[in-house]
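In response to the reviewer comment on reproducibility (Comment 2.3), we provide here a single inverse folding case reported in full, input and output, so that an independent group could reproduce the run without further information from us. The structure tokens appear first.
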């Protein structure tokens, strides 16, 4: 990943971290080596939990962030889903999972989020398949409409969407403080 891409990621995470209060607990799904997402959040005072299937990348994560909790696991099998979090981030991850696992992860995220918690993930807006340049595996974006259906079925609400370089969309999702149709408690104070 180029330094330019790392700077973009750090800027985007800094902007979205305003959604959460300092010292909140955040689960970083597919944390990799932790730069820029976990690093940016740790620098801002958040408690980070990272999960990644690559032993090599997770070793680098643990080396950088000795105080952060980390787990080497496929994200859909993570034991961290047995905990509760104020925020969950899946930066550049969801679309590299097969569609059935994308739904499983979203369901587990919904159950792991504290009420009023926030889920941030990136994906192309359209339903599209491509070969990922980093992993060389097939990537599949379900598209905004399908993601919204899955999110809604799990009680999650899309409260923000922004397009960035490379037509990558940053989706900000909220679990309402009260499970009702009144979403005002998810939208206050969010600078997207």
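Designed residues, in position order:
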């Amino acid at each position: 990943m180029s330094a330019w891409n790392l700077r973009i990621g750090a800027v985007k995470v800094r902007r979205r971290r305003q959604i959460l209060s300092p010292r909140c607990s955040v689960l970083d799904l597919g944390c990799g080596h932790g730069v820029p997402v976990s690093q940016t959040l740790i620098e801002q005072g958040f408690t980070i939990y990272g999960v990644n299937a690559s032993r090599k990348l997770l070793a680098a994560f643990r080396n950088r962030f000795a105080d952060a909790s980390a787990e080497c696991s496929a994200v859909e099998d993570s034991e961290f889903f047995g905990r509760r979090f104020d925020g969950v981030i899946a930066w550049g991850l969801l679309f590299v999972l097969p569609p059935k696992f994308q739904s499983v992860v979203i369901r587990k995220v919904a159950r792991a989020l504290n009420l009023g918690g926030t889920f941030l993930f990136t994906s192309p807006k359209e339903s599209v398949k491509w070969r990922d340049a980093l992993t060389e595996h097939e990537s599949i974006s379900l598209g905004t409409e399908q993601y919204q259906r899955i999110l809604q079925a799990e009680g999650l609400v899309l409260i923000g969407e922004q397009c960035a370089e490379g037509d990558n969309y940053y989706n900000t999702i909220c679990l309402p403080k009260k499970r009702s149709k009144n979403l005002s408690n998810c939208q206050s104070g969010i600078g997207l």
